[in-house]
Write a structure and sequence with these properties.
This protein is an alpha/beta fold. Helices cover 31% and strands 17% of the residues. It has a 5-stranded parallel β-sheet with strand order 3-2-1-4-5. The longest helix is centred in the middle third of the chain and has 14 residues. The chain is globular.
Length: 190
């Protein structure tokens, strides 16, 4: 199968850059928590590297082998290769056990798979977070400029570099509702 994200992760100016998501960076820097982390849809590793630098052992998972190659290049440059493991696969095929990760990051992953699969994956990753752990999920919503709904069409923010791979756009508070379901056993911070 061809790598659907080869081009965005092969450029000199890698898709999404090298600055980690602000909430992930704040968690990694401030909590002093170490342990195991899972970065689903790791891309070229902006969050993977931030977590590894903070002391986490990170499993970076992505459908793009080119993105994962860039993760390992960045890990070597940052001298954290010993704390980064990569796995190239469809996130729906990944075995994720409950209570196994102190941090789970899933940036623009649930929107790249059908909603029925996204719901199943959500439940798996919510259950995978340890009691004191951290879950960061970010997805494209109907308000994003790449969405063909009226709200998104008139947004003045830039269109995501992988917007053409979005299968479903979430309603603006849909992830919040999912996080507040009693079985998710999560406490929402932001």
């Amino acid at each position: 199968m061809a790598d659907p994200f080869y081009e965005p992760y092969d450029r000199d100016e890698i898709a999404y850059g090298d600055v980690p998501s602000s909430l992930v960076a704040a968690f990694a820097e401030q909590n002093g928590v170490t342990g195991s982390a899972l970065d689903l849809g790791a891309g070229a590793g902006r969050d993977t590297i931030a977590l590894a630098k903070a002391g986490f052992h990170v499993k970076a998972v992505d459908l793009s082998q080119r993105g994962l190659d860039r993760v390992m290049q960045r890990a070597a440059k940052s001298r954290v290769s010993d704390r980064v493991e990569i796995k190239c696969c469809d996130v729906r095929e990944l075995k994720i056990l409950p209570g196994t990760f102190d941090a789970v990051v899933a940036t623009t992953v649930l929107d790249h798979i059908p909603m029925s699969d996204a719901t199943k994956l959500w439940r798996k990753i919510a259950a995978a977070v340890t009691e004191e752990g951290f879950l960061f999920v970010e997805d494209q919503t109907t308000e994003d400029p790449g969405c063909d709904l009226v709200v998104g069409q008139f947004a003045d923010a830039p269109v995501s570099e992988t917007a053409d791979a979005v299968i479903n756009y979430f309603e603006p508070i849909q992830l919040l509702r999912m996080a507040c379901e009693p079985e998710s056993n999560l406490r929402v911070l932001s």
